[in-house]
Amino acid sequence: MESIQKLGRVGVIMGGTAAEREVSLKSGGAVLTALLALGVDAVGIDAAEDLVGQLQRLKIDRVFNVLHGRGGEDGQLQGLLAFMGIPCTGSGVLASALAMDKVRTKYLWQRLGLRTPEFRMLSAGSDWAEVIADLGRVVVKPVREGSSIGMSIVDTAQDLEAAWRRAAAFDSEVMAEQYIKGAEYTVALLDGAVLPAIELRTTHTFYDYDAKYIASDTQYLCPAPLNAGDTAVLNALCLDAFSSLGCEGWGRVDVMRDAQGQFWLLEVNTVPGMTDHSLVPMAAAASGLEFGQLLLKVLSASTSVSTPH
After folding, report:
1. For 191-215, what is each residue's pLDDT tens digit?
2. Which residues are catalytic?
3. Is the pTM of this model over 0.85?
């Protein structure tokens, strides 16, 4: 791990104008406070205003990216920083763009034989009844949003059309994914290592925005109550899913487990949340890493992300 002095001036990029702005500001605030407490020369940067100008004026040497959602998680920020020669935490341009796009991610996983739920693309001309007949209960999602924004779970043609309209308010591309009934897990990866898996339990229909960031009754079982064999299978699957997209540094893989015990890949998050409800810090703590140590590990891996790939 690099010394704090060698990190130089760290810009914590947060906020922006995407749908996840408020969550990003909370994540960024937590990261900035912790870095300053460690003695890092860190400054907060709200990407909503003249990002290039701020990077230049503040003489940023390296970026800790907590800009969730579009602009920060989809390759745009990564490309800008690579062009400017500023190292950035997390994955590069291609991996970020792929992981943000749930459909292209699934195409790749299907081709590689990695288990992920079946899906259909939705549009105004979709045969709603046919989609339900094919897939049964479905999760409707904007293809390029995070934090469960715009998501619904439906099982009738009428509700499916309404769910598509809700999701279409956030993205021109909307998908209906086969619902997997069972336990939900998330697995964090840090610099090539797998952190303890977390099982998520919520009283909500699914782990939605409220369950993630507001509710106080969401349960987080960490390490997840899995035997050694199942843990090994889950960890290997998540490593394969992460590396298949070319992801680097750190991230999180979300997974469902059905009644037969099979794991199903949902998506990869390349800029995980860092709020008081967030999962990567929780998994890191279970492995013996305090929040500050986690941040320094993420930053020390950022040296490799200085050119587009």
Report:
1. 999 999 999 987 666 555 554 445 5
2. 20, 147, 213, 252, 254, 267, 269, 273
3. yes
